[in-house]
Amino acid sequence: MPANKKLLVLPGDGIGPEVMGEVRRVIDWMAHRRSLSFEIDEGLVGGAAIDALGSPCPDETVAKAKSADAVLFGSVGGPKWDSLPFEQRPELGILRLRKDLGLFANLRPAVVLDPLVEASSLKADVVRGVDIMVVRETVGGVYFGEPRGVEKLPDGRRRGFDTQVYVEDEIARVARVAFDLARKRRNKVTSVEKANVMQSGRLWRAVVGEVQKAEYPDVQLENMYADNCAMQLCSRPKQFDVILGDNLFGDVLSDLAAALTGSLGMLPSATLGAVDPTTGKRHALYEPIHGSAPDIAGKGVANPCAQMLSFAMLLRWSFGLEEDARLLETAIEKVLAGGLRTADIMQAGMARVGTSVMGEAVVRELDKLAA
Ligand SMILES: NC(=O)c1ccc[n+]([C@@H]2O[C@H](COP(=O)([O-])OP(=O)(O)OC[C@H]3O[C@@H](n4cnc5c(N)ncnc54)[C@H](O)[C@@H]3O)[C@@H](O)[C@H]2O)c1
Ligand SMILES: CC(C)[C@H](C(=O)O)[C@@H](O)C(=O)O
Ligand SMILES: [Mg+2]
């Protein structure tokens, strides 16, 4: 009997628990039909943790995450907690988990599925066949740099400041993740920064170039300013294979890439730590790139695909279950090809459904594929 796979599920806030409910159906299906035995624990994070325990990321949640084989994360935040002081905000829940678990490389695949070509706001010819992997650095940069704050100037005006900081090895290790991925894809990395105006951007460009020259001379490296990259993503997205960016540019450009695929509700992600050389294990957290979507929370209309696809990434990256991951991805694509659409990807002539009907349809499709 294979050992249980320890999963920590953190639904969070807003649509997080709604879309996570649909993944739980898939997990149950995998357990019964594919004999995958998961040992599931659930924890509190974000606003839900603030309400219950007074902290967006309680120590207990961090400890559970550290001892799990993989963490499946929903989303955090919402208007209820927006007026809390900066250091108590729900968003610190995900930031602390990334930092404390050393999750420095965030993989955000933006794939335009055939059935959704027409759901994109861009022309079908521009987006058909797009398959981009955004690799975003997630434990450094302006998200964590010191000093930061808001101060009062002698003349009474307020001054807000943040600091963008990168040490060269933080850049090099995430660059290696991007180059390794490119080797398994179309062998090209586009590294984005603002080396024309930022010192840290200059260092970023230099270090990525050094890593490529020394360790990946077979991989094509292109440097691009982040603003140009945003424009090129909208005009010629098919030129991109792997896009490598810092914490902030990676965040912004991956939301933009999500728009190519039809909706933020379609984009999953995996955030990975370093492999421990003694155990061969790594910490990993899987989450959709979207947030808690307060505008639609509680209505049962959120698209559960990004959360489900995050679970597929978990099967692939944490457990090497490529076949099961593909099965789930295929089931989702088939449901979309069959014409079901949540509101965010709705198109003329398709059937509009809510979160749970979409989830049920995916499980039915899994049944058919496995028959
Ligand atoms: N990882 C996270 O937990 C995470 C990520 C991003 C934002 N947030 C937080 O979420 C809150 C809301 O932020 P926001 O509105 O800027 O971003 P958001 O991603 O929550 O929503 C942006 C837009 O996309 C839509 N959308 C997002 N996911 C969807 C889905 N699965 N199905 C259908 N539509 C979907 C929303 O309805 C909204 O119109 C904020 O508190 C923010 O800090 C959290
Ligand atoms: C909620 C927020 C802290 C987070 C980020 O900026 O990293 C989100 O936008 C994301 O993309 O995961
Ligand atoms: Mg984001």
UniProtKB/TrEMBL annotation:
Pathway this chain belongs to: Amino-acid biosynthesis; L-leucine biosynthesis; L-leucine from 3-methyl-2-oxobutanoate: step 3/4
Record has Amino-acid biosynthesis as a keyword: yes
Cellular localisation: Cytoplasm
Residues the entry annotates as binding Mg(2+): D227, D251, D255
Similarity field: Belongs to the isocitrate and isopropylmalate dehydrogenases family. LeuB type 1 subfamily.
Positions marked as site (Important for catalysis): Y143, K194
Domain Isopropylmalate dehydrogenase-like: 6-362
Binding site for substrate: R98, R108, R136, D227
Role description: Catalyzes the oxidation of 3-carboxy-2-hydroxy-4-methylpentanoate (3-isopropylmalate) to 3-carboxy-4-methyl-2-oxopentanoate. The product decarboxylates to 4-methyl-2 oxopentanoate.
Gene behind the chain: leuB
Cofactor binding mode and count: Binds 1 Mg(2+) or Mn(2+) ion per subunit.
EC nos: 1.1.1.85
Protein name: 3-isopropylmalate dehydrogenase
